[in-house]
Amino acid sequence: MGFWKNLKYVLSDECNGLLRLLVDHYNRRSEKNEKSIRDILVKVQQTMDAQEVLDSNMSDSYQELRENKDAVEKVSTQCESVFSQCETMISQISQMETDAASRGQEIEQIIGQEFEKQKEEIKKGNQMLAARIREVYAYLEAVNEPDPDAPNVNDLLARIDTLEQKNAEYESRLAAVSKELDETKKAYDAVDKSFQEEKRKAFNLSKKLVQANDKISDLLDRVKDRSLENMLQKDEVQSPFMITQNKEKYTITAGNIQIMVTRFANTIVLDRFFESVPDYDPYKKMYQRYQKDIRTTARQFTPKSELEDVLRAFVQVVQEDLIGKMVEALYRRMKSGKAEFEENLLSALNQYLEAIGFYCRDELRVGEIFREKDLDDMDCMEDNQTQGKEQGEILEIETYPYYINYIDKAGKRKKLHTKGMMTIAV
Q: What pTM was estimated for this model as a whole?
């Protein structure tokens, strides 16, 4: 407030000075100081404007000061209320400190009483423990007191040494006996093995002797009707089911799949054979089933199909419809006796299979012992009712395995085959 007041006085003095200067110049006015008089009038006017602005600002400052005074008085009242509350709280805290001091004394008294009580109990426990320790010491002394009836330790040690020496002798004897027993067992095993080997050889020889006797008897019976030379020639005649023409041929390749499909579908030979056969004939029904399956299979593939997939599908149809049904039926009928119709049908069937590219594996012979590799393309039926036959001997070949050669897209020579069936002795 003092600042504004002082500023007002300064402006008033400056304005009065300028007025006096103006009057002085006016009294001494001339052409030279006319301009100075006008400048002084301008400054006087600026000074009066400044004083007016100052008076307006002083009025606003007085109003603001009055408002601040009311706010200060209000805050002062609130501070006095807060101070009063603080004094009340200080009084309450003092009272709480007094109460806490009195309670502390009570707690110290209670703790002191409990401590004395526990101290007395610990003292009694120590006394009881000391008494128990004395009893244990007394018991230990009684236990450690030497027994007059106990044996002498030195005597016991001497007896233990004697027993250990005898035990070592027994162990040595037992080891010698065990070694002798092992040697005896090995010798017995060797003798038993030799005996079993000789027994097996004798058994095999006896079996072969029985087989030889049976063959001799059979030969004697057969010689009665025909000469031995004719009989041997008869045995060497190839089976009518055997096809060997295509064994070394590889005419099926990945580039001529369509030609291969055409071969399988070309059944003219069989069509001609069955032209005069009635529809109710079982062989014709088998053939019609094969025709249907082979044509259905042919429609499943295109010239872009994989050769192995196409050929495997056709071989499966041949296995199921021709080999597994028709060829097996032909074998059973021809085995039972004269069967001219079946022989003609087999000839037509062999022509068809040869035209496709099939051939039979001809290493199999009745009367020979089958080999493990024969199980790759043959199913075996076991016959345990045969006498005079060697174990594993092939008794009968119902169907041969039919093979077909091809060259895959990599140029490798490969084969696919059907499964044959034979009976062996066990």
A: 0.46
